[in-house]
Design brief:
Layout (H helix, E strand, L loop, with lengths): L2 H13 L4 H8 L9 E11 L2 E8 L11 E8 L2 E8 L11 E6 L5 H8 L6 E3 L17 E6 L3 H15 L5 E7 L8 H10 L3 E7 L9 H7 L7 E5 L2 H13 L6 E4 L15 E5 L4 E5 L5 H7 L17 E11 L5 E2 L5 E3 L3 E9 L2
Parallel strand pairs: 7-8, 7-10, 8-9, 10-11, 12-17
Antiparallel strand pairs: 1-2, 1-6, 2-5, 3-4, 12-13, 14-15, 14-16, 14-17
The chain binds FE2/S2 (inorganic) cluster.
Family: In the N-terminal section; belongs to the FAD-binding oxidoreductase type 6 family.
Keywords: 2Fe-2S, FAD, Flavoprotein, Iron, Iron-sulfur, Metal-binding, Oxidoreductase
Pfam families: FAD_binding_6, Fer2, NAD_binding_1
Length: 357
């Protein structure tokens, strides 16, 4: 055991039933070890409805890989909400900070709060970097990036990392969709990269100014060798569905990496039944609207459930149903047998429900 660890253990004995880290938090929230916090260092308006927050993570932060996302806690009116955002900065910045770039979603309370309200100096709970939407670490690739709207954020981290680490962006093609130039997040930075990096070919497509949405002819024109490239695509569901269908028809699904903001939802939300969710092991209860996934409800209630992908893939969030029933939001399957496994990231409560969590 190191001297620091021994001292921390000794301090914990005096701080019992809390840990010394809880008292340290009162002095500087970034020094705590029982949870990870970040301080808002600066905010920068990107477009009318989006802005970049520069965050200084506290003790315990480990650097991300370009393309990964983080969970951000956002206190609003005394209640903690949690959302995930792709990191838009390159890893290992000299100042030790990271950036997230948030677009205000109409009706989205948390995104609007981050874009309009959050102030420099605030402390926000931060999660570990996560996600598999990353470039291979060793193998060189010839990427094709397809992005729309705020789907640019993980790709921006990759491009900035290329420039920071290699000074050169390798042979890459980038299709980026935005309604208008003024709504293109990082529009001028991307244009500057395209002008200074000879191997980076950028095609901006402005869909409300005559530009077509993703289609086969457009892809062929912009990137004739698309079949030979590995693809990273991020954006709204309609774009990703079109891209997936195109690569699937070509038998090239294995070359496609897709990052969604949400798991695909297949069920109608009109028949949702609101109720109460009880998390048995945590002795916590929260309201459910019958639509929100149970992971988000748990996190908003201040819990920190284990999870991974938040997309229904990894089973890192599995728990057991104690009573009541839940619905799988991807396909409508009802899970109502006590003891059944529930993937909380893609299931919503149907009325009152109790989970082992
Ligand atoms: S977090 Fe991966 S399946 Fe729920």
């Amino acid at each position: 055991m190191t001297i620091q660890a021994s001292l921390a253990r000794l301090a914990d004995m005096f701080a019992y039933p809390l840990r010394h880290s809880h008292y340290v938090e009162l002095v500087n929230p970034l020094w705590t070890t029982h949870k990870l916090m970040a301080r808002v260092i600066s905010v920068q308006q990107e477009t009318d409805d989006s802005r970049t927050l520069t965050l200084r993570p506290g003790t315990g932060w480990r650097s991300h890989r370009p393309g990964q996302f983080v969970r951000l806690g956002v206190p609003i009116d005394g209640q903690r909400h949690t959302r995930t955002y792709s990191i838009s900065s390159a890893p290992n910045r000299e100042d030790g900070c990271i950036t997230v770039t948030v677009k205000a979603v109409p009706g989205g309370r948390v995104s609007q709060h981050l874009v309009q309200q959050v102030q420099v100096g605030e402390y926000l709970p931060l999660g570990e970097p996560q996600g598999e939407f990353v470039l291979p670490e060793s193998m060189p690739v010839r990427p094709l990036f397809i992005t729309a709207g705020s789907g640019i954020t993980p790709i921006m981290s990759m491009l900035r990392n290329y420039v920071q680490e290699l000074e050169v962006i390798p042979d890459s093609v980038h299709l980026h969709y935005a309604p208008h130039p003024r709504e293109a997040i990082f529009g001028s930075e991307l244009a500057a990269l395209a002008a200074s990096q000879p191997h980076y070919k950028l095609q901006h497509i402005y869909t409300r100014e005559g530009g077509a949405h993703f289609n086969a002819a457009q892809l062929e024109a912009v990137c004739p060798d698309w079949r030979a490239r590995e693809v990273w695509a991020c954006g709204p569901a309609s774009l990703l569905e079109a891209v997936e269908a195109h690569w699937h028809a070509a038998g090239l699904d294995h070359q496609l990496h897709v990052e969604r903001f949400h798991a695909p939802i297949a069920i109608s939300t009109e028949a949702a039944t609101a109720g109460r969710v009880r998390f048995a092991a945590s002795a916590t209860e929260a309201a459910s609207d019958g639509v929100s996934n149970l992971l988000r409800i748990a996190e908003d209630a201040g819990l920190n459930p284990k999870h991974g992908c938040r997309m229904g893939i990894c089973h890192g969030c599995d728990t057991k149903l104690v009573s009541g029933s839940v619905r799988d939001l991807r396909n409508g399957t009802l899970i109502a047998e006590p003891g059944d496994t529930v993937q909380v990231c893609v299931c919503a409560a149907v009325g009152d429900v109790e989970l082992a969590l």
